[in-house]
Specification:
heterodimer, A: alpha/beta, two-stranded antiparallel ribbon, 63% helix, B: 113 residues, SH3 type barrels, 2 domains, six-stranded antiparallel sheet, 6 strands, globular
Chain lengths: 571, 113
């Protein structure tokens, strides 16, 4: 009989660095960032030590063994299943972290305590006597720095010594116990505010907070644009035009089957009008969207790891109260500017159902995701800035409108913000690069099958004549309601697969500006893309998801029909 | 004084209502007076004496380490009824205004904790 693989759980307060330790120990990569609630679901990985296999579980951060949210429930269930607990403690806030440590000790499971952020203690004037702490907690204590990859080997070695703490039956009041431990093992020396702490104070100051938020957001979007444009014009476009396109064309010219060739490279030389998988599909994914995807997640990754997002939550808290929410919801909404899927997942740290529904509807409806935004901007700029602004502001206002309606429909308590503000940390370039790489991999893993699949479906439908049928029925409704040409119908339906592609497919229609605005708004709102759709169902269940999508669809229809009417009367 | 220093401490707790600034000055004169943590001036230190509200709210605050007997410092408050920022043992917490009204403290002067 083979020995069962031991399960080891990484348990600790939010933002104590569990995900990074997980990556370091298993060699598998998970996304980490500097805000509480980065991990909302389980990540599991294997590692080997002394010929034995172990399973390591990365668990959402918790403050105590009581569930306050869905992410907390996941965590508690997994702790019960674990054979050994690695309690990850933020060494720079020993006192607060020990509360969970004592609760874990009382579970009576073999345990090791690891003091993460050890490298930060020195310049914060914190001196911890590790040996003494080990004696008092009665379990191995290992100082590490996951950020600098120091002490991980010691941590793995210490697992052999993991034991049940003698504190399992401790009768003393936990906070008195913590007080006695902390005063015995930790010495604080006075030190001056560091530069980063001055910045922290400034970004929390009433005036400084709002002005810095405005500056940071404007600068971020400016940088995203400049960097994205630079990559697109300087690298991707020349590569496509000079190398890739001639290569693909010459390669495909040897394909004897006309139908196949048309499907792969299309008929037109214009990459946006050919409808070929290898031309239009690749052009949109690589030349139009990817540069901005890259630059957005460069900038966003920095803000995440620096620790800015929770401060933004503080600044925006008052605004979000008007939306029936509190400031933490700004984090999913920021994520949603990139992609809706991680944004939906991030709502798991919210405690109430109503809160979740309101946040998800805002994520879904107040702004398009990044690939869509890029396409709306790059097509819309042909009509002028006003057209682009019209699309974005209409979507934003509709999102707010739906929020107001939902607030009325679902009466409930106004949730209150309570969030720990992590210290600002200068992000490590290597970690930023690794995270960006993970996101790029995800992008390509998802984008190519869906683009290829989408363009393929359009082609097949076109050949067997269904396209004409759809254009006839759905198209009639479209032209009646929104004044759009019949042939646009299949493009709209394709949006379910990939919204950026479907917006790009508007290009060959040469729509007048008002139709472009109406079509874009409708395409953003009428339904989430397929990935977002299934994530939504996972998060809220089928019924609520369909309700939200229904509201969104209804809004899109009514608003676009209304806009069309207004345009007809006044333009 | 650097530019950033200007923002470290807000001058005379602007924008708090007249009644609360009255309470504030009395609180400072007689250390030991009770009040909501929102009434503390920025930079002032106080001891938590009571958490009001539902069981759930109390447990949530306690889980974060804000509980009776603890010394906390108010760092700042945000305009328009936004959250207040508390410091405890070098950690920063942002607590929504509604939640902050439930944290009752006893003023202990303005020396650092």
């Amino acid at each position: 009989m083979s020995e069962q693989v031991k399960k080891i759980a990484l348990v600790g307060n939010p933002n104590s660095g569990k995900s990074l330790i997980f990556s370091r120990m298993t060699g598998t990569s998970v996304i980490s960032a500097n805000y509480p609630g980065t991990t909302v679901d389980l990540a599991a990985g294997m590692f080997k030590y002394c010929g034995k296999d172990y399973q390591l579980l990365d668990i959402p951060g918790i403050y105590s063994l009581e569930p306050f949210s869905k992410a907390d429930e996941t965590a508690l269930r997994l702790i019960k299943e674990a054979d050994i607990i690695i309690n990850v403690v933020d060494a720079t806030s020993l006192e607060r972290n020990l509360s969970l440590t004592l609760q874990l000790a009382k579970q009576g499971k073999p345990m090791v305590v690891c003091l993460n952020f050890w490298d930060d203690t020195a310049h914060k004037g914190i001196d911890i006597d590790v040996k003494n702490l080990e004696d008092r907690l009665d379990v191995p204590v290992v100082p590490i720095s996951a950020l600098r990859n120091e002490g991980i080997a010691d941590l793995v070695k210490s697992l052999e010594l993991a034991g049940t703490s003698g504190l399992v039956n401790d009768q003393m009041d936990p906070w008195n116990r913590i007080g006695s431990i902390v005063s015995a093992v930790q010495k604080l020396s006075h030190r001056h505010h560091s530069f980063l702490e001055h910045i922290s104070d400034f970004t929390l100051h009433p005036f400084g907070g709002i002005s810095s938020a405005a500056v940071i957001l404007v600068v971020t979007f400016y940088l995203v644009r400049v960097l994205g444009e630079g990559i697109a014009q300087g690298i991707c476009n020349p590569l496509y035009v000079r190398l890739y396109h001639p290569f693909v064309i010459s390669l495909s010219s040897s394909i004897p089957v006309e139908f196949l060739r048309a499907m792969l490279v299309g008929a037109s030389a214009d990459p946006l009008q050919s409808f070929g998988i290898l031309t239009t599909g690749v052009y949109i994914a690589l030349v139009l969207v990817f540069p901005y995807f890259f630059s957005f997640y460069c900038a966003f990754g920095f803000l995440e790891d620096f620790g800015y997002l929770p401060r933004l939550a503080v600044v925006l808290d008052a605004v979000f109260h008007r939306l029936g929410l509190h400031g933490y919801s700004s984090i999913p909404i920021m994520l949603g500017l990139g992609c809706k899927v991680p944004a939906f997942l991030a709502t798991r740290v919210l405690s109430g159902r109503r809160e979740k529904v309101l946040t998800i509807s805002l994520v879904l409806m107040s702004a398009p995701c990044l690939p869509q935004s890029v396409m709306i901007i790059s097509l819309g700029m042909h009509y002028g800035l006003a057209a682009v602004l019209a699309v974005f502001s209409a979507v934003f206002l509709l999102g707010l409108g739906v929020n107001v309606v939902l607030q009325k429909m679902t009466k409930g308590e106004l949730p209150e913000l309570s969030i720990e503000l992590p210290s600002y940390r200068m992000p490590s370039i290597r970690l930023l690069a690794r995270k960006l790489w993970l996101r790029i991999l995800d992008y390509f893993r998802e984008i190519f099958p869906l683009i290829v699949g989408g363009v393929l479906i359009i082609h097949i439908l076109d050949t067997i004549g269904i396209l004409r049928f759809i254009a006839g029925t759905v198209g009639k409704a479209l032209s009646l309601l929104f004044g759009l040409p019949n042939e646009i119908a299949p493009v709209l339906l394709l949006g379910f697969l990939r919204k950026d592609v479907s917006i790009a497919l508007l290009a060959p229609f040469h729509l007048p500006v008002r139709d472009f605005i109406v079509a874009s708004i409708f395409m953003v709102l009428y339904s989430p893309c397929i990935a977002a759709f299934f994530t939504l169902i996972k998060e809220l269940g089928v019924w609520s998801s369909l309700q939200i999508i229904g509201v969104s669809f209804l809004c899109a229809t009514v608003a676009c029909a209304f806009l069309h009417m207004v345009f007809q009367f006044f333009l | 004084m650097t530019f950033i220093d200007l923002f470290k401490i807000r001058p005379n707790g602007a924008r708090s209502s007249p009644s609360s600034s009255m309470d504030l000055s009395t609180a400072r004169q007689k250390a030991g007076l009770r009040g909501e943590v929102t009434r503390l001036k920025n930079g002032e230190t106080a001891k938590v004496v009571e958490l009001r509200g539902s069981d759930r709210i109390i447990r949530k605050l306690e889980a974060m380490g804000i509980m009776p007997g603890m010394t906390i410092r108010k760092k700042s408050n945000s305009p328009m009824g936004g959250p207040i920022v508390l410091e405890k043992g070098g950690m920063l917490f942002a607590v929504g205004r509604g939640l902050a009204h439930r944290i009752i403290v006893e003023a202990a002067g303005s020396q650092p904790p």
